[in-house]
Amino acid sequence: MMATNKTVTIKNCPEVRFKGFTDVWKQFRLGELCSEFRSGEFIKAEKITSSGDYPVYGGNGLRGYTDTYNHDGDFALIGRQGALCGNMQFSYGKAFFTEHAVAVKANNSNDTSFLYHLFGTMNLGQYSGQSAQPGLAVGNLIEIETLVPDKTEQAQIGNFFQNLDQSIALHEKKLIQIQNLKKAMLEKMFPKVGSKQPEIRLKGFSGDWEQTTLGEIADIYDGTHQTPRYTSSGIMFLSVENIVSLQSKKYISEEDFENDFSVFPVRNDILMTRIGDIGTANIVNSDEKLAYYVSLALLKPKKVNPEYLVKAISSEIVQKGIWRRTLHIAFPKKINKNEINNVEILVPMCDEEQSKIGQFFKKLDETLVLQQQQLQTLKNLKQAFLEKMFV
């Protein structure tokens, strides 16, 4: 159980504490809290593989695996060099730490898990040397001062965040599993190049799929070629960077929208990137008026189920067709609207099969979104507690 400290005026204890703890936190140098605080050892690159007995940690986290170890036990790791200088990792059991990672182990009066989370709140990267390759010196790190409670309170805090980290890791693992399932199903539920039937078929359906083109099953348009005149409110304006969410903080006036958009996206239409990033599609699920830039193509389905089409665009056949018709020498690369019309696609003859495939992936996407939201909620919760449970 936790309690909120509302009486402290001097910042020597956190805002939120576990019940029963009232003593002020005491000041120490980082080196005084640890029995070990030193860099790891050099290892040849050829000794690091994609799989092996022991993980290898460097300045930016996990580098791979090797057949030997130089540490055994629980250690907090500080990235000493590299792009993520000052980042924190935690290692359990046997592992190899390179010279670009600083291994930290608490002494008998302190808790290693607590120190790991404490150091993570301290932005240690700010103490790196100002050079082309930023680096942290152990001699400087051990002299940094901080406030800590007694070991009993440290252990409770460390255990609390360890459990929270485990929950986050489980949600991340589940998210990856769902993402991998979606990727596998996209590969197996649409025909591969040279075939007219998918590897996995929904029960009750058979026969070849029909070969056609995007232009035969949808009317295709591109967005305005004019530089938009943005306003603080009005009609939402979408570009290539908005394809995932179909949300934007850019707007144009109602007047400009009426002048420039005789054709515009409506519910169940599909927007697809065509400049820079090419071939990423999303379906419109809003009745709100939307304006869109030339970097997006608008597909208005006429002989195909929209939910099916938006996923079929991700299939191997369609993506390869888009790639072949893309102007790769252009900068940024692009595919012209007329070329999109000619991209080949395979479509089930049966409307019901189209609908069921579309619904299958729609439910999978909804599961993905829910999992992402749950994961983000946990991360936000952790960040809130980090801000309130440390001084």
UniProtKB/TrEMBL annotation:
Organism domain of life: Bacteria
Entries under InterPro entries matching the protein: Restrct_endonuc_typeI_TRD, Restrct_endonuc_typeI_TRD_sf, Type-I_RS_S_subunit
Gene Ontology molecular function terms on file: DNA binding
Keywords annotated in UniProt: DNA-binding, Restriction system
Pfam families: Methylase_S
One GO biological process term: DNA restriction-modification system
Keyword tRNA-binding attributed: no
Type I restriction modification DNA specificity domain residues: 25-179, 208-379
Presence of the UniProt keyword DNA-binding in the record: yes
Family to which the UniProt record says this protein belongs: Belongs to the type-I restriction system S methylase family.
Protein name as catalogued: Type I restriction modification DNA specificity domain-containing protein
Source organism of this protein record: Acinetobacter populi
